[in-house]
Specification:
Helix content: 55-70%
Order of helices and strands: HHHHHHHHHHHHHHHHHHEHEHEHEEEE
Shape: globular
């Protein structure tokens, strides 16, 4: 009898053995106290590099988002605030672009460095809640959360919160456990750092405060010096920013009140439902892929058994309870607040609020994480990442080909910046210092122009980087987008008032990507010469 019929069985056995060896190697590294940290750092670095490459290819037909350009503009000067927001996102961008070139790829690298830093800190958080096996599984699941890959392509004040907020949660868990003066100091500094990112982090600070009051072990914590030292430290650390806030007449708060207050209850409810649906949709991907990774953790065709009762020594229940309370509050609280105060709640405000969801789920005591699950979830992450890398150029072509003629995403602002810089230098033989335009125009101009002019946005609060007096002294270029009738008239009115002696120009820009034309945009340009 031929032995050929036995070969498939031998091949399957060999393949199972190879997979078991790979899984065993990964588990040994993930659960080793010394090797675990380097494994997570290495994973985060690979994630950052691969997704930076993906975003470069995926966004090849586009200029950087205006929020990214705005962060770059803020980073040109290290101020205590930038009109609309506290300064941390601008400071980070300022440091980054003093090291890396001002190019599209470096903005995507900044975004991926931000989320990858968060991955490592979230692993440190997980170690206080679950065992090392679960902690690594959680990190890979979090890397599959769209906020930590393609949805996190734009670095802005929302994404920048993923630097201080995980640090804040880590500091809270540490203070809750140690209840010392030192742990309180760290918690206070972490809270102040978070507040310097965006005032929206008050949702997380409030959730942590409520968790400390709700937790069954609250009295041990509240009787310790940690929470009171934390509060005092936060207030003292915030004094310079509070002084700045008073000096600018609380401009960021006034701006938020003017922009996000709603008069329509129906619109308010619609936006709340949209916020909820958007963020639940984003969370569905990592949760379902995580369950798939657990279910496929058996090498047989039968799904692995992952649910059963019994004690689970891999879960620190008091700290898990903290995570469940904090995540529940930040998931529900903003929705209730938006409904109570009739506030416009943007979907992007959920970007920094749900990074604890994978940990909250993996900390369920009845959920078991087989050793093989670490290999399967990592394989799922790898397949998803490589498939996106391979498909990115095709996706970019399809998006460009299907874009509407007036799509703002593909307007060639980088080309406009180059042409205006050349025009200014040819006319006045000096550096172009100020641009006046709507922020989605002026901020990309600041980014792409080699002169990096400071921006003035008509009708908006000043960022503090320049002023109308400086614009008149150094001269400026005003820009109006003719494709937006709602903005064109007020823009022309502002130019008529502040650019009376300007030289008017009309410029047309259009981007082409792999044979596909982008929208053609006509710009009304006003050249105001420097004062004599």
């Amino acid at each position: 009898m031929s032995t050929a019929s036995y070969l498939p069985t031998a091949s399957r056995a060999k393949r199972k053995l190879s997979l078991r060896r790979a899984a065993a190697w990964l588990v040994s590294r993930a659960t080793d106290p010394k090797a675990g940290l380097w494994l997570v750092i290495g994973f985060a670095l690979v994630h950052a590099m691969l997704w930076t490459l993906i975003l470069v290819r995926l966004k090849a037909a586009q200029d950087v988002h205006m929020d990214v350009a705005e962060a770059y503009a803020w980073g040109q000067r290290f101020l205590l605030g930038y009109g609309k927001h506290p300064p941390l996102s601008g400071w980070i961008a300022g440091v980054w672009f003093r090291i890396f070139p001002v190019t599209n790829w470096s903005t995507y690298a900044l975004a991926m460095a931000t989320v990858s830093f968060a991955l490592v800190v979230c692993w440190l958080i997980a170690l206080r809640v679950v065992d090392r096996r679960r902690a690594f599984f959680m990190v890979v699941v979090l890397a599959l959360y769209p906020i930590f890959n393609f949805k996190g392509f734009k670095y802005n004040a929302d994404l920048a919160q993923l630097v201080p907020l995980p640090l804040l949660v880590l500091a809270y868990l540490n203070a809750f456990e140690k209840r010392s003066v030192k742990s309180g100091l760290w918690l206070g500094f972490a809270a102040a750092l978070a507040l310097m990112a965006k005032y929206w982090v008050l949702t997380m600070i409030g959730a942590i405060g409520l968790a400390a009051l709700i937790h069954p072990q609250r009295m041990q914590f509240l009787r310790s010096p940690a929470p009171w030292v934390a509060i005092g430290t936060m207030v003292v650390a915030m004094i310079p920013h509070l002084v700045w806030l008073e000096e600018v007449d609380f401009a960021p708060l006034t701006y938020a009140g003017d922009v996000y207050a709603l008069s329509s209850r129906a619109l308010n409810v619609q936006l709340v439902i949209g916020y909820l649906g958007h963020n639940l949709g984003l969370l569905a991907a990592p949760v379902l892929l995580g369950l798939l990774g657990l279910s496929l953790s058996s090498l047989s065709w039968r799904p692995a058994r992952i649910w059963w009762r019994g004690p689970n020594p891999g879960i620190n229940l008091p700290q898990a309870l903290n995570i469940w309370i904090v995540q529940s509050i930040v998931a529900i609280g903003p929705l209730l607040g938006a409904l109570a105060f009739t506030v416009y709640i943007k979907t992007d405000w959920g970007i920094p609020l749900f990074f604890l969801v994978p940990l909250a789920l993996i900390a369920i005591p009845s959920l078991r994480v087989p050793r093989m699950a670490l290999f399967t979830i990592t394989a799922i992450w790898f397949v998803v990442t490589i498939a996106t890398l391979v498909g990115a150029p095709w996706i970019a072509r399809q998006e460009m080909a299907s874009s509407h003629a007036g799509a703002s995403t593909y307007a060639a602002r980088s080309e406009l910046a180059r042409e205006l810089t050349e025009t200014w230098q040819a006319r006045f033989h000096s550096r172009w210092a100020v641009v006046a335009a709507r922020s989605d125009i002026s901020e990309p101009i600041t980014f792409y122009s080699t002169d990096h002019p400071a921006a003035i946005t008509p009708g908006e609060v000043s960022s503090g980087l320049t002023s109308l007096d400086e614009a008149r002294r150094y001269g400026f270029i005003g820009i109006c987008d003719t494709t937006d009738p709602d903005y064109l008239k007020p823009c022309e009115a502002w130019m008529a008032e502040h650019a009376k002696d300007a030289e008017p120009l009309v410029m047309t820009t259009q981007r082409f990507f792999q044979g596909h034309p982008g929208p053609s945009t006509i710009w009304k340009v006003y050249l105001v010469p420097p004062a004599n």
